[in-house]
Design goal:
It is built from seven helices and no strands. It is mainly alpha-helical and about 270 residues long.
């Protein structure tokens, strides 16, 4: 399997010889680029299908959306302080995501806990932006789903093939922007403004670049999930695929929310 910048897809099991199943896009010849990690599925376990991935992703996403709406409402109405929602959601989401990644086995309870925590966090931070820029939340949600849908169409039609060269480019670009964002954060702690997050022209360009890279990461996520289906891993790994897609969706949503706030400033 091709490598991916999404850590959630780096610890997948080897297929157990169940044959080929229809996936997200065109059926490519099953090639191994480094192989999955972990133990092969045991005999008798039902292999994963596209319906499993879609269903588990829909459940996870719906949970985050519902919890997010409740969290945003509580914050906007002042019933719960924003940081009383934002910080716990952020910390729990981060801790649970690390547990999922390093545990290396799919866990529906952990993925759902992650979905709830992210809903609390995203709802709170969305409330902060919504209070300052009314209407920005729905714009960000529509923008996120628009990008996700567009990249799914691109993948399904084969308009962009996920080749080893493209994979390396996406991973390199993802690591690059991550380093820049970390560097900007460290500089900010010392009162240095790099211009990457101040809302100026450079910040807008940087945010557009990050959104583009996040969008291309969906191609790697789709290909990784598709490889799981082609390899016939156990159906329980659909929760792992759902978690991987959710991490990219959360990243994309936050970046779109940030970009929209730049564009709405006076």
């Amino acid at each position: 399997m091709r490598t991916t910048s999404n850590p959630a897809f780096r610890n997948l099991p080897t297929g157990g010889g169940y044959g080929s199943y229809a996936g997200f896009g065109q059926q490519y010849e099953a090639q191994q680029y480094g192989g999955y990690q972990g133990a092969p599925p045991t005999t008798g376990e039902r292999p994963i299908t596209i319906d499993d991935v879609v269903t588990k992703t829909a459940i996870t996403l719906a949970t985050t959306l519902v919890v997010g709406l409740v969290s945003a409402w509580l914050a906007l109405t002042g019933q719960v302080p924003v940081y009383g929602l934002l910080l716990p959601g952020l910390i729990v989401g981060l801790v649970v995501s690390l547990i999922i990644i390093f545990k290396r086995t799919p866990s529906a309870p952990l993925v759902m806990t992650y979905a709830v925590a992210e809903g609390v966090f995203l709802g709170a931070i969305t409330a902060v932006f919504e209070a300052k820029f009314p209407g920005i939340a729905w714009q960000a949600i529509l923008g996120t789903f628009g990008v996700f849908g567009a990249m799914l169409v691109v993948y399904k039609t084969g308009a962009i093939r996920v080749t080893p060269r493209l994979t390396k480019w996406i991973i390199g670009a993802t690591v690059g922007v991550a380093v820049l964002m970390l560097g900007n954060l460290l500089l900010g702690l010392f009162g240095v403004n790099s211009g990457l997050r101040d809302g100026g022209a450079l910040a807008i360009v940087f945010s557009l670049v990050v959104i583009g890279i996040a969008a291309f990461n969906f191609l790697l996520d789709f290909e990784s999930a598709n490889e799981m289906i082609r390899s016939g891993v156990p159906a329980k790994w659909a929760w792992w695929a759902a978690f991987g897609l959710m991490t990219t969706l959360v990243w994309l949503y936050l970046e779109i929310l940030r970009l929209l706030s730049y564009l709405q400033r006076d």
